[in-house]
Write a structure and sequence with these properties.
This protein is mainly alpha-helical. It has two domains: 86 residues, no CATH class; 145 residues, Helix Hairpins, CATH 1.10.287. It has five helices and four strands; from the N terminus they run H-H-H-H-E-E-H-E-E. 76% of the residues lie in helices and 5% in strands.
Length: 246
C-alpha cells in the first residue's frame, strides 16, 4: 500500500491523540479517587453498623435499668406497707414476727436489686460513651465520603473534558487522512489497543521500543518514501522522519 509520505506523517498526530485517549480511558478505569470512594463507603458502612450495635446495647441496658428500678420500687412499697402494719400495733405477735422476717428479706432483696441496678447503670454509661464515639466516627466517615465523592467527580469531569478535547482533535486529524490509509491505521489500532502507527526513531520502533535488525532496516531504507511500511514486531505503521536513522 502506498500513501503520500507527508500524509503518513499525520499518522503521528493521530497516534498521539489515540495514546492520550487510551491513557485517559485507563485513568478512568483505575482512578485512585474512585478507589478512595469505595474505601470511604466501606468505612461508612462499618461505622454505621457500629452505631447500630451501640444503640442496641444502650437501648437494651436502658430497658433493663428501668425494669430494675420498677422492681426496687415494688420492694420499697411492700416494705412501707409492712412497716406501717408494724407501726400500727394492730397485728398479733405472730403476724408481727412474720412481718419482721419479711422486712428483713425485703431489705436484702432491695440491696441486691440496687447493686444490680448500679452495675447496669455503670455498663450503660460505658455503652453511651461508646455510642457517642461511634456516632462521631460515623459523622467523620460521612464527611470523608462526601469529600472523596467530590474529588472523584472532579477527576471524572476532568477526564471527560480532556477526552472530549482529544476526540475533537483526533477527528480533525483523521479528516485530513485518506480513507484507505485511515482504515488500515484503525484496523491496526484495534489490534494493538493503543495506536496504529509509530515513529521510526534512531532505528527503533517507538511503538514497541524494539530496534530493527539489519534486514528489517535495509528493507525500510530501500522502500519507496510513499510505501507504507510496518514494524515486523508490533505491526504498527512505521512513520519515517529525519530522526529515523536511515
Amino acid at each position: 500500500m502506498k500513501a503520500d509520505h507527508f500524509e503518513q506523517q499525520k499518522l503521528l498526530d493521530l497516534a498521539a491523540e489515540d495514546v492520550a485517549l487510551t491513557q485517559l480511558a485507563h485513568r478512568r478505569r483505575t482512578l485512585p479517587e474512585a478507589a478512595a470512594v469505595t474505601a470511604a463507603e466501606e468505612a461508612e458502612r462499618s461505622l454505621a453498623a457500629d452505631v447500630v450495635r451501640a444503640e442496641t446495647e444502650v437501648r437494651d441496658l436502658g430497658r433493663e435499668v428501668k425494669r430494675l428500678e420498677a422492681d426496687v420500687e415494688t420492694v420499697r412499697q411492700r416494705e412501707d406497707k409492712d412497716q406501717r402494719l408494724l407501726d400500727s400495733g394492730s397485728v398479733s405477735p405472730k403476724e408481727m414476727t412474720n412481718l419482721q422476717h419479711e422486712l428483713e428479706s425485703l431489705k436484702r432483696r432491695q440491696t441486691d436489686l440496687e447493686d444490680q441496678e448500679l452495675e447496669l447503670m455503670e455498663r450503660l454509661e460505658v455503652a453511651e460513651t461508646a455510642l457517642r464515639g461511634a456516632q462521631e466516627g460515623l459523622d467523620k466517615a460521612r464527611a470523608d465520603l462526601e469529600r472523596a465523592v467530590q474529588l472523584r467527580d472532579d477527576a471524572l469531569a476532568d477526564i471527560a473534558d480532556r477526552t472530549t478535547q482529544h476526540e475533537a482533535a483526533r477527528g480533525e486529524v483523521a479528516g485530513s487522512i485518506s480513507a484507505p490509509l485511515l482504515a488500515l491505521y484503525d484496523r491496526i489500532r484495534t489490534q494493538t489497543g493503543t495506536a496504529g502507527a509509530a515513529m521510526l526513531k534512531s532505528r527503533a520502533c517507538q511503538g514497541c521500543r524494539i530496534e530493527l535488525n539489519g534486514r528489517e532496516l535495509a528493507a525500510v531504507r530501500n522502500a519507496d518514501p510513499h510505501e507504507v511500511v510496518r514494524c515486523e514486531n508490533c505491526g504498527r505503521i512505521l512513520v519515517r522522519t529525519a530522526e529515523s536513522g536511515l
